[in-house]
Amino acid sequence: MIAWGGGDRTREFEEVALVHLDALYRTALRLTHNRAEAEDVVQEACLRAFRNFHRFNPGTNCRAWLFTILRNVFLNRLRRAGHEVLNEDPAVWESAGESVTTPASARKSPEEEFFQTVLHGDVDRALKGLPLVFREAVILADLEGLSYREVGEVLGCPTGTVMSRLFRGRSLLRQSLGRFARERGYIKESG
Amino acid sequence: MNCQDFETHLAPFVDGELGVDETAAAAAHVGDCPRCQALAEQERQFRQLLRRQPRESAPPEFRARVTALCRREARRKALRPWFVAPALAAAAALAVALLQPGLGRPAPLVGELVANHIAYVDIERPAEFASTDRRKVAEWFRERAALRATVPDLSGAGIRLVGGRIGQIRERRAAFVLYEKGRTLLSIFMVPTLGGGAALPGTPVSYRGLQYVKQEQKGYRTVAWTEGDTVFGLVSLLDYQALLECADALRFERARESRV
Who contacts B167 (Cβ-Cβ below 8 Å, separation ≥6)? Predict the structure, then answer.
């Protein structure tokens, strides 16, 4: 437990938590697509984290803890703005295409050759089109490098769910990136 | 492991999320099957594409504003410490959820390190990120998993850097820096601890004024120590003298980094 009220606590917060400010900011940008809003979300999340920092157990994962707070702040704001939060409608899942157990042999391989042709901004554009449930999983795991377990901690779901969301998120992302590449004529229509 | 099994394990394999045995089995399959090797490669390229996205930083004015707000908040709270009480209840649920995974009975850490090391020995290309560039390996750990890994120069002892790997030790992400001397692999593990500085089992040994514990398991020699909130462990078939020299080089490098 950290001593209460002293400058040490502030310094410790800066050293342990605020070092992740860039990651929080980037992630908020990718969630909100808006700089001012991203700043509001991060600022609120940081203050909330600071107020609860004495409850944070040193040595546990601060980054996952901060992402959890950031996500809660973001979802609360969405709700307050009257948006429907996290579309878990099975139809969305179906439309994501392949199931986790789809044999790779059934996937189209020419689709995969577009990696070299992906342009600056394509990934963000493709991410933007992902339903939030998949987008947040992909951002945390693939862009910010959190483990399945940490992603599960942030999203409040079991590792198996993390894996299936990642699978579908990545599939959708690949489809979009392939489409962008095709639009530019870099790769041929496949099958 | 056959092709079908491999495909169901493909994503966690590439993400470094399989257990030791499954990683070894998947790696063995990839070694035998060019088709699955190509699949894994494709999957890796996709991950790298995502990881290589520009990493935007928070604007300096914004960083300054957040820092100032937190400092102001601290002054306000210092005057009215009771003010925080309602927030405690809300925080408690979250904190409990976060703490629980770590509270389990600790497995023998050194045994886990040795098991990981043995798994890597069997793999054709043990490094998840292969590079002989110390700076690049350290940077990879930082970017990929926010791990601070010290990558010492051991070339003076004829020990060559192979690369890095991120693994789970006791449900925490840990950095594994891999070296080799000839065909002998040396793993350096850096495992963030849960804050409690639990004593490491083994025979205490002092080398150049610093303390270590040494232990032999399954024919592999290990040298370990705790520094700050990180447990360091070296595992190899190399002799203790070589391991202690490497450990000393690492601590020297770590101290140098901290000063910079």
Answer: B16, B116, B173, B174, B176
Alpha-carbon span A144 to A66, nearest angstrom: 13
> From the candidates B45, B50, B141, B227, which should be mutated to test the interface with A, based on the most A CB atoms within 10 A?
B50
B109-259 CATH choice from 2.50.20.20, 3.30.70.270, 3.90.226.10, 3.30.200.100: 3.30.200.100
Give A186's pLDDT tier (boundaries 50, 70, 90).
Answer: low
Neighbour count for residue B236 (Cβ, 10 Å): 24
Which overall architecture, per CATH, does domain A7-80 show?
Orthogonal Bundle (1.10)
**pLDDT for residue B124:** 66
- Taking an 8 Å cut-off on Cβ atoms, the answer to whether A59 and B11 are in contact is no
- Cα separation of B12 and B26, whole Å? 10
Which chain B residues contact residue A4 at CB under 8 A? Answer: 81
Report whether B190 contacts B149 (CB < 8 A): yes
Task: Using a cut of 0.95, tell me whether the model's pTM lies above it.
Answer: no
Looking at domain A90-183, its CATH architecture is Orthogonal Bundle (1.10)
* Prediction ipTM score: 0.80
